Amino acid sequence: MAQRKSATPRLAPGPGRLRIIGGTWRGRKLDFSAAPGLRPTPDRVRETVFNWLAAQIHQAHCADLFAGSGALGLEALSRGAAHCDFVDSNGQTIRQIQQHLTALSALSQAKCVNGEAARFLQSSEKPYDIVFMDAPFGMGLATEVCDLLTSRNLLNPGALIYLETGVGDETPDIPSNWRLHREKTSGEVYYRLYQLD
User: Fold this and answer.
1) Rounded to an integer, what is the distance from CA 104 to the centroid of its chain?
2) What is the pLDDT of residue 181?
3) Comparing C-alpha atoms, which of 150, 22, 128 is closest to residue 83?
4) Residue 31: how many other CB atoms lie within 10 Å
5) Contacts of 30 (CB under 8 A, 6+ apart)
6) Which of 95, 104, 49 is nearest to 68 (CA)?
7) 29 contact partners, CB below 8 Å, separation of at least 6
8) In tens digits, what is the pLDDT along the chain, a chain of 197 residues?
9) If 0-12 CB within 10 Å is exposed, 13-18 middle and 19+ buried, where does residue 10 land?
């Protein structure tokens, strides 16, 4: 069993800035405030992930669970996704994502939900093409979400699921019909892309 490397959510080191790295909003810089567990996906990782998703991102319906700064969902919308649901338990981060969407004139392409990802999925009905999961490292939050995506039929055929964990974290229980498509590590980040068979 892998040792958990960071059981306590990290705090972002003061106010930060998120940069959209591709698509319509390429180069736009969006400020965000520190919050417990807020750890935006690094630019290099996002660039790799969206290269993996390039063929499927256009007009995709996405969910950015554990959204934090909203980096993944905003990047998806910039690159042509049709819609993204942003879900996070921290009200401050959700309000900031709403502010970013307003500044980008993209509120009509998104829904922002302040709440737990698992609870959101328990009442969700529409399936997704792409799901982003970047939960706080070392807390074991992803397994329940993976189970709900499968048991509630919330993934379209061939859907892609992005999972980001700490290098030392336990791997969540992955549904048997998810096939590992790509994986890579960068510093403390271990990131994988699964595809629904």
Assistant:
1) 19
2) 96
3) 128
4) 12
5) 17, 18, 19, 20, 69, 74, 100, 103
6) 95
7) 17, 18, 19, 20
8) 333 333 333 333 346 788 999 999 999 999 887 665 566 788 889 999 999 999 999 999 999 999 988 999 999 999 999 999 999 999 999 999 999 999 999 999 999 999 999 999 999 999 999 999 998 877 778 899 999 999 999 999 999 999 999 888 888 899 999 999 999 999 888 999 999 99
9) middle
Which amino acid appears at position 84 of this protein? C
- Measured distance CA(146)–CA(175) in Å, rounded: 7
Q: What burial letters (b/e) apply to 129-144, b meaning 16+ CB within 10 Å?
A: bbbbbbbbbbbebbeb
3-state secondary structure of 95: helix
Write the burial class of residue 56 (CB in 10 Å: 0-12 exposed, 13-18 middle, 19+ buried).
Answer: middle
Instruction: Of 154, 167, 153, 161, give the one whose Cα is nearest residue 181.
Output: 161
- Rg of the chain taking only CA atoms, in angstroms: 15
Residue 83, exposed/middle/buried by CB under 10 A (0-12, 13-18, 19+)?
Answer: buried
Instruction: Tell the residue number behind the tokens 């660039």, with chain if given.
Output: 47
